[in-house]
């Protein structure tokens, strides 16, 4: 053992994090093998990857043995495209869920206003201002939004943790600012949706006629 190479992380070529690096002579002597199963070619200029791949194919595939030349940049583009489609799909599902949640909060707040019309009439008759009634119902919608958004945020972190362990065998890429910021965005959108959904019920409650509200059965 000469030394330990610094951990590199994920890669599309040979990953030295899970391997032992030896010289060619020792390998040929230990495994009685003089040929290579894989050769990795790295270029300094990424714009020359396609030209390098084409040159290798022309040079090596003129023989009887056919060599498969794999462009890791193309693999990366395929993976990014796949994850982009998945991201678009999950965003669409999240948008639909957000709309459904907004409609549900709207219904809950409308039911709350309907059930408390008489209470609203009492509040208005003792001098409570319209804006105070408006703020009261908006505050209720805000509480619903905060609770629901926090529960959703925690659930998304747990779900992301499970998916990361399943697909990547590590969760180190989850707990980074660039990933966690999307959880904060989701919580903020949830709270904002709750306030928008509670705006009309709160306005309706604030504009109730106090006399008619007191007569409501």
Describe this structure in words.
The radius of gyration is 31 Å and the shape is rod-shaped. It folds into 2 domains: 1-70, no CATH class; 87-215, no CATH class. It starts with 23 loop residues before the first helix and ends with a helix. The mean pLDDT is 83. It has 217 residues and is an all-alpha fold. The chain contains 7 helices and no strands.
Short description:
With 217 residues, the chain is an all-alpha fold.
Report the end-to-end length measured between terminal Cα atoms: 86 Å
Uncertain regions: pLDDT < 50 for 5+ in a row?
A: none
Assign an overall shape: rod-shaped
Percent strand equals: under 5%
Radius of gyration over all CA atoms, rounded: 31 Å
Mean pLDDT: 83
Which structural class matches the secondary elements? mainly alpha
Query: Order of helices and strands, N to C?
Result: HHHHHHH
Q: Tally the structural domains.
A: 2
How many helices? The count is 7
> Considering DSSP H and I runs of 4 or more, what fraction of the residues is helical?
55-70%
Number of strands: 0
Instruction: Describe the main β-sheet briefly.
Output: none
Notable features of this structure?
217 residues; 2 domains; mainly alpha
How are the secondary structure elements laid out?
Blueprint: H1 24-31, H2 49-60, H3 72-115, H4 117-125, H5 130-168, H6 177-206, H7 210-215
Helix pairs in contact: 3-6, 5-6
């Amino acid at each position: 053992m000469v030394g330990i190479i610094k951990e590199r992380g994920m890669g599309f070529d040979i990953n030295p994090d899970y391997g032992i690096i030896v010289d060619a002579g020792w390998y040929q002597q230990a495994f009685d093998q003089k040929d290579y199963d894989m050769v990795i070619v790295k270029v300094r200029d990424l714009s020359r990857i396609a030209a390098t791949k084409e040159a290798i194919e022309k040079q090596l595939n003129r023989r009887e043995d056919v060599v498969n030349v794999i462009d890791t940049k193309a693999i990366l583009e395929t993976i990014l495209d796949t994850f982009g489609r998945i991201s678009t799909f999950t965003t669409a599902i999240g948008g639909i869920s957000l709309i459904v949640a907004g409609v549900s909060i709207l219904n809950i707040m409308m039911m709350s206003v309907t059930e408390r019309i008489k209470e609203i009439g009492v509040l208005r008759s003792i001098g409570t201002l319209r804006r105070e009634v408006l703020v009261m119902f908006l505050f209720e919608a805000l509480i619903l939004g905060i609770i629901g958004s926090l529960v959703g945020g925690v659930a998304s972190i747990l779900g992301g943790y499970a998916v990361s362990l399943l697909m990547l065998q590590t969760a180190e890429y989850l707990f980074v600012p660039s990933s966690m910021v999307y959880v904060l965005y989701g919580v903020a959108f949830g709270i904002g949706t709750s306030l928008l959904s509670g705006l009309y019920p709160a306005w309706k409650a604030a504009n109730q006629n106090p006399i008619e509200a007191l007569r409501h059965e």
